[in-house]
Amino acid sequence: MNPPRARRYNGRVNSIEWRGAMPFLLAWLCVVFPAPANAEPTLLNAGPAPVVVAMMRSGSITIRTWDRPQVQIDTDGQAQSQQIPPAEVQRRFPAQIPLVAQTLRTPRGPISLPPERFVAPPLPPGPHSGIVVRGYGNTTITIPRDTAMVIARVGLGFVAIKGYRQGFFVALVHTGRVQLNGVSGTGAVQVLSGPIVAVNSSFMRLRARTARGNLIFERCNAMQIEASSVFGSIAYDNGRFQAGLAHFQSEHGNVALGIASGGVQIGAHSAAGHIYSDLGSGENVQSSANDARAIVNGGGPVVTATSETGAVILYHGSIREHPQLQRRLPMFRAAALRRPAVWRPPTFRRGKPPS
């Protein structure tokens, strides 16, 4: 059973349903270049710096790297794969990646993510072949270390990217989770309902957003980062910032910034909540109940943190080293820093699609 034909993104995105829109590179090629499904592991010659696109209706996509010029696909469900010639990849490579508008219906009413466009970095010089994978089930895709771009989309399940460095990545999940571990480069991540977790990662430029879900960054380093959630807390814990801009915003959750080292200029605002600070007596901090300005270690990159109804917390290092903040904000500790239970996607028998 093939997924419905993708609709072309035309800039008029208004509450598009996930299944009806595939707003990312080469999605339409799955229809133009059909290929038979393969139940056994598949090994494809990719050539230098390929572009890899993976789409699963349900299950999971795990991206990992190796020192071979091939792409290997292992799945417990069903996956179709095809190769795209370099000329077609070059012709269709977009200047911008659209993040579609999505709406989540909840007992409190609908929660919406507005449409956005994320500027894509140019491909490295030279030809780049494309590998497109689609289907369902729990799928591991092993890619060359020099892969130029990875796009992974799951409807119901999760995306995990491990050890992918100095490339461009896009991870899109409707309901589930995205995990980045040891990742670096430029990327965009969107989850409508579920968390985004990044550990030991370094970002040149990152856009991450959820409608309902926490965003947790542990021991990360960012040059430019924008993270936002409607109903979810954000924790940038024990992290670093390079010269650039950083913005963290939650409408109805809490925001925590834990500075590991280096100088920063912090601006914090909470419209209906409070500002809590434990940056140390030697730092330049000016604060009130709802606003704070801080120059840490002599200043540096500009970092802003805002929340409409939640609290904003500023501290050195990891929040686990600040019991006074944990005692004052036990709900924040539970909501923002406790990792959600691992979501385990359903498994399907080979050759049998999900009901």
Description:
With 355 residues, the protein is mostly beta strands. The protein is 7% helix and 53% strand. The protein contains four helices and 26 strands. The chain has helices spanning 29-32, 86-92, 323-328, 330-337, and strands spanning 37-38, 42-45, 51-66, 70-75, 78-84, 96-99, 102-106, 109-113, 116-119, 130-144, 149-162, 167-181, 184-193, 196-199, 202-212, 215-218, 221-231, 234-241, 245-250, 255-259, 264-270, 275-278, 284-287, 291-296, 302-307, 312-316. The strands form three sheets. Strands 12-13-15-17-18-16-14 form a seven-stranded parallel β-barrel. β7 (102-106) and β8 form a beta hairpin. The chain is globular, with a radius of gyration of 21 Å. The termini are close together.
How many helices?
Answer: 4
Mean pLDDT: 84
* Secondary structure category: mainly beta
Helix content: under 10%
Instruction: Tell me the fraction of residues in β-strands, as a range.
Output: over 45%
Measured between the Cα atoms of the first and last residue, the distance is: 11 Å
Spatial sequence of strands, sheet with the most strands: 12-13-15-17-18-16-14
Q: What low-confidence regions span 5 or more consecutive residues with pLDDT below 50?
A: 1-37, 338-355
Question: What distinguishing features does this structure have?
Answer:
two-stranded antiparallel sheet; 26 strands; 53% strand; globular; disordered C terminus
Quick gist of this model?
With 355 residues, the chain is mainly beta.
